């Protein structure tokens, strides 16, 4: 399933607006122009109608958050349209609407309470922004993130309406169920204008159809000292090839089997290494060297095959069994990967 990566960066990691390194307003002046606007590939139910940003930092986060809310919905919409497996749809619905999004909304509510990021602090009719500017800037960002995630939930909920119409949430429910806030008198969501006729709309292929991924049931790179050979370490080449096809389909590796260098990819691949070990995809004994294979031998083989260097990440996740389990559960293709 698609990660809420950018939202998580704002909530939990490097883009948290209250971090000291994110305080200077001038840091965001040039960054805003680098963000390209995104258009929905679906008929939206809502648009965000929030207060106007009041400095460079709020302008940056406003554009980033609104764009990401559309981008994320586009990805989920495309995923549903391109896959007709109803079991997958039910899994995605449960994962997103019952787990991932409620967790983020509850955390936003907690942060708002802990840091006093109340909406009245940024009402331009009740305050000015020259006093306590940092706090008001952070309030703006968290309140906007809250509205954006409510919008994301409502849009995705509509995507899955063909599965079940029970327990459909309306905007008021988010304040009582997840945020523990009074229901606001005025909504920051408005009805979106009709832009797409969904009766005739189809998911169009993006550009030319790429060539099919070529499965290689053998070593693909020159032999390297200390790295086990394919046929000495792989237990079932057909089963492993099926896994690698999924690895390619989910954009972890390219046509040349090299790992894609995207944000967070090394951590994800390290977790996948452990999953393959746990699922028994490798032989226990090295017949060539007459000794058992160690996990490190397997990691060396996979690093060489995928042109990667995950030694640090592989060691880091050795003891993080719970984090590994959470990641696997969040990704259906990994969660359902058959044992070997």
Structural class: mainly alpha
Strand content: under 5%
Quick check: average pLDDT? 90
Counting DSSP E segments of at least 2 residues, the number of strands comes to 4
Query: What is the tally of helical segments?
Result: 12
> Order of strands in the sheet with the most strands?
1-2
Gross geometry: elongated
Give the ordered list of helices and strands. HEHHHHEHHHEEHHHH
Question: Helix proportion of residues, in percent?
Answer: 40-55%
The radius of gyration computed from the alpha-carbon positions, rounded to a whole number of angstroms, is 23 Å
Uncertain regions spanning at least 5 consecutive residues: 196-206
Q: What characterizes the major β-sheet?
A: 2 strands, antiparallel
How far is the first residue's CA from the last residue's CA?
A: 23 Å
How many domains? The number is 2
Structure description:
This protein is mainly alpha-helical. It has two domains: 5-191, no CATH class; 230-335, no CATH class. The protein is built from twelve helices and four strands, in the order H-E-H-H-H-H-E-H-H-H-E-E-H-H-H-H. It has helices at residues 5-12, 56-82, 86-115, 133-159, 171-179, 230-233, 237-249, 265-278, 295-305, 311-316, 321-329, 332-335; strands at 46-48, 189-191, 285-286, 291-292. Helix 2 packs parallel to helix 4, helix 3 runs antiparallel to helix 4 (133-159) and helix 8 packs across helix 9.
